[in-house]
Each structure stands twice: as structure tokens, then as C-alpha cells.
């Protein structure tokens, strides 16, 4: 299965993003990144239940710092 999510360097920024999206009526959940890049910090992944690119645009317009959108495929 393919998962697409927005990456954050720490849990604090991920929670801030989750709360903002929630206030806009967009459900999401914050978890550890399944494919972390240790050079970028702790790596948390925000899974958006809906259009992840729309959520990314909202976060960008509201100056919520993130590490971009990434996809990860489960190993079969």
C-alpha cells in the first residue's frame, strides 16, 4: 500500500499543523515517519484523511514549517 504524508522535523510542529488543519475541518493523524531520514531530525509524519496537497498548501500559507510531502510503500 502507498502512503502519502507531510513530514515534520519534530512532534511540536506536527501537532501545530494537525491543530490548524483540524480547525479547517481536515482530519489528520500524527505518527512517527515510517521511512525517516535521521539527518532531518526526529521525523514525524502527518497523515491527512483527504487531499494531502490541499493540506500542504494550507500549511504553507500559514507558515507552518515542514519538510515536504513524501510517499512510502509497504513492502509486500
Number of helical elements: 2
- Roughly what fraction of the amino acids lie in strands? 25-35%
- What best-fitting shape do the alpha-carbon axes yield? globular
Largest sheet: 4 strands, antiparallel
Strand order of the largest sheet: 2-3-1-4
**Beginning-to-end CA distance, first to last residue:** 8 Å
Low-pLDDT residue intervals, each spanning 5 or more residues: none
Query: Could you tell me the mean pLDDT?
Result: 91
The total of beta strands comes to 4
* Rg measurement, Å: 12 Å
Helix- and strand-based class?
alpha+beta
Helical residue percent band: 25-40%
Structure commentary:
The structure is a single chain. This protein is of the alpha+beta class and 76 residues long. Helices cover 30% and strands 29% of the residues. The chain is built from two helices and four strands. The protein has helices spanning 11-23, 52-61, and strands at 2-8, 28-32, 44-48, 69-73. A four-stranded antiparallel β-sheet has the order 2-3-1-4, covered by helices on one side. The longest helix is centred in the N-terminal third of the chain and has 13 residues, at 11-23. It is globular. The mean pLDDT is 91.
